[in-house]
Structure formats: structure tokens, C-alpha cells
Design goal:
- α1 packs antiparallel against α2.
- The strands form 2 sheets. Strands 1, 4, 5, 6, 7, 8, 9 and 10 form an 8-stranded mixed sheet that branches. Strands 2-3 form a two-stranded antiparallel ribbon.
- The radius of gyration is 40 Å and the shape is elongated.
- It contains 12 helices and 10 strands.
- With 360 residues, it is an alpha+beta fold.
- The protein folds into 2 domains: 4-89; 109-344, Bira Bifunctional Protein, Domain 2 (BirA Bifunctional Protein, domain 2).
Length: 360
């Protein structure tokens, strides 16, 4: 049997040298584990004579109790050291500004915000939202909308065409969201009340034009739709969008292949002091185009113009966003400048509503 004092000194030295709880656990197992040095001594007591067993058993158990107490004391010290190190490592300076959460730091792009605002306004009037593909056929983008074969919009300098396919036809990036109206009329039976927001593409780029921009168009088809209904819808939607109690509009004759009669609409505004205000002043600003759906368009979409009639309108989402929120340059909408977005963007949880306010 090894000398207990020597064994005691070795075990206590190993416990004192443990610098973390893993090393301390290794020392415990080496002494008190199933195959530990003290456990081995206790297992050998059965082979001793009764007097020797009594004497050695008392000494070995005394050593076991001492080692257990020293282990507990060392474990408490190591836990305190680990806690102090963690507290030091994870110290927070409460005088520093709080780092904002992602949902608070993020911003909704003004285009998305305006789309949401328009969706709220027209949903309240009973309109559904219709969508369609950005890549369209010449038939849906032009022919079914009554564009003549020699119309300048069909030229390459106005429209982005793809290379001809195997059958010789060319697809294109839609120049307006009117093909969505065509698809709606081809797949739904009247009455139809939809708005069609989305991206559109034209070969143009300057301070107020970009090759890709956003439009929203509206379409109403039934048996008795007339210009009086159109006028009321446009007035009410503009009042709600610009958040003014009243607006004045004037309708000027114009020409669009897909409507007859066609009109451009101006809205009353004030430009005093470099600020644009709607519903007041003596100035006028062109804001959208509209008209009664051309009978040829109805026929092309499988509707009898002797039974059904309707009206449509369209306006630029980017343009009305610029007017409402005072943005001077359309190109900044697409430059991904975080400073611009932080200034003009909207908080993600400020959901537009007619009761709480569209723009928060």
C-alpha cells in the first residue's frame, strides 16, 4: 500500500495546480473516480486483516473526505475566477448609445411605400390588384391595345426588344402595365375593377426619366361605366393620396391608341416658395392620362363593345412620389445610396392606412 501522506501531497498538489474546471475534474477522477488512487485503496481493504482494515479504512476515508473538501473549495474558486473573467469580457458601457435593431434601422423605399398607399386607397374603392410579367409579347403590349403597325412606340429607340425567336417574333420589356389590363380582360368576365402597378421599361434617361420606372394603371369594365365615374375616382384617389381635403382637376383632350375619347389630367397646385402644394394655388400640373377604353381594345380582348364599356387611366408612381415627398431627381431612386434612403425612406412598421394616415 502506498504511503498516504505522499499520496495526499500528490493529490492536493494536482488540485491546487488546476487552472480551470476541466483540469479540476481530471484531478477528481484520478483520485476519486472508479479507477482512482483513493478508490483503489478502498477496494483493497477487503483483503486486510480486521485490525489493519479498521486502521487503514479510517485513514483512507479521512483522506477521501479531505480531498472532497479541497475539491469543493477549489471548484468554488475557479467558478468565481471564470465569472469575473466573463463579466470583464462582456462588460457593457451603458453610456454608449444603444445600437438600433434591424427592424428600426431598415427603411422602406419610397416606391414601395407609394405602391402600398395606392393599394390602400383603391382597395377602399373596391379595386383588386392585378399583376403580369415584365417580358411581354408584341401582341399584348401593342397590337391588342390598338397600336398601329407603324406607331413610333414600336421602334427600337423607344422600346427594349429581345432578339427574334425561332419563329421570328420578338419579345420585349413592357413599355407600360397596360398588357396586364389585356390579360385581365382575356381571363375575367366583367364587371372588372383592377389597378395594375409594376415596373415598366423605355429607352429614356434624364433627370425625370429612367430606363426602368414604375407605373400604376386602373381599369373599370362593366355595362354602364362612364366619364363621370372616372372623374370621381380620380378626384377621390388624388385627395386621399396627397392627403388634402379638396382638389381641382381639369381634363384636356389628348390621344392614346387604346382610349377614345382620351384625356390628360391636370391638378391644381401652388409652387410658391419652391414648395409644391396640391389643392390650392393658381398653377396646374399634368399628372396622368386617361380615357374610355377603345372599342377595338374590347373586341381584341373578346368583349362586345355594344354590351360593355369602360375607362382606364395611368400615372407614374415615381413621379407622384417625387411630387408628394419633394424629391428633385428621379435617378436617385435607383442609385442605392443608403444616405438617400435613410432620408426619404419609411419605417417598416408604419403601414399606410386611410384612418391612421398614408405617410405616417
Amino acid at each position: 500500500m502506498p504511503d498516504l501522506k505522499t499520496l495526499q501531497a500528490q493529490i492536493l498538489e494536482q488540485i491546487a495546480a488546476a487552472q480551470d474546471e476541466a483540469a479540476l475534474e481530471a484531478a477528481r477522477v484520478a483520485a476519486l473516480g472508479k479507477r482512482g488512487s483513493i478508490s483503489a485503496l478502498l477496494a483493497g481493504l477487503g483483503a486486510m486483516a480486521p485490525d489493519a482494515r479498521k486502521e487503514q479504512g479510517a485513514a483512507i476515508n479521512a483522506l477521501k473526505d479531505e480531498v472532497t473538501e479541497v475539491l469543493a473549495a477549489r471548484r468554488a474558486v475557479l467558478k468565481q475566477v471564470a465569472l469575473e473573467a466573463r463579466l470583464k469580457r462582456e462588460t457593457v458601457d451603458v453610456t454608449l448609445p444603444v445600437r438600433s435593431h434591424g427592424i428600426e434601422a431598415g427603411r422602406i423605399h419610397p416606391v414601395s411605400q407609394v405602391m402600398d398607399e395606392l393599394g390602400v386607397i383603391f382597395a377602399d374603392m373596391g379595386f383588386a390588384i392585378a399583376e403580369g410579367p415584365d417580358i411581354e409579347t408584341d401582341d399584348y403590349n401593342f397590337t391588342k391595345l390598338n397600336f398601329p403597325p407603324d406607331h413610333p412606340a414600336r421602334d427600337m429607340h423607344d422600346t427594349f426588344f429581345f432578339n427574334p425567336g425561332p419563329d421570328g417574333t420578338r419579345k420585349l420589356l413592357r413599355t407600360h402595365t397596360s398588357p396586364v389590363q389585356v390579360r385581365t380582360m382575356l381571363t375575367q368576365k366583367p364587371p372588372i375593377r383592377v389597378i395594375c402597378p409594376g415596373r415598366t421599361y423605355r429607352c429614356d434617361s434624364d433627370q425625370t426619366h429612367t430606363p426602368m420606372f414604375h407605373q400604376v394603371e386602373g381599369l373599370v369594365i362593366d355595362r354602364s361605366a362612364h366619364l363621370g365615374h372616372l372623374k370621381w375616382i380620380l378626384e377621390e384617389s388624388c385627395k386621399a393620396f396627397f392627403e388634402v381635403p379638396d382638389v381641382k382637376m381639369r381634363f384636356r383632350p389628348s390621344y392614346f391608341p387604346f382610349t377614345e375619347p382620351s384625356m390628360e389630367v391636370d391638378i391644381q397646385c401652388s409652387r410658391q416658395g419652391g414648395e409644391m402644394r396640391f389643392g390650392e394655388g393658381e398653377d396646374w400640373l399634368e399628372i396622368l392620362g386617361c380615357g374610355m377604353v377603345h372599342p377595338n381594345v374590347l373586341r381584341n380582348c373578346g368583349l362586345d363593345p355594344d354590351i360593355y364599356q369602360g375607362f382606364a387611366w395611368g400615372l407614374g408612381i415615381d413621379r407622384i412620389a417625387m411630387l408628394k415627398y419633394g424629391m428633385p431627381d428621379l435617378r436617385a431612386f435607383f442609385e442605392a445610396d443608403i444616405r438617400w434612403l435613410n432620408h426619404y425612406g419609411f419605417r417598416p412598421l408604419d403601414i399606410p392606412s386611410l384612418i391612421g394616415g398614408l405617410s405616417g
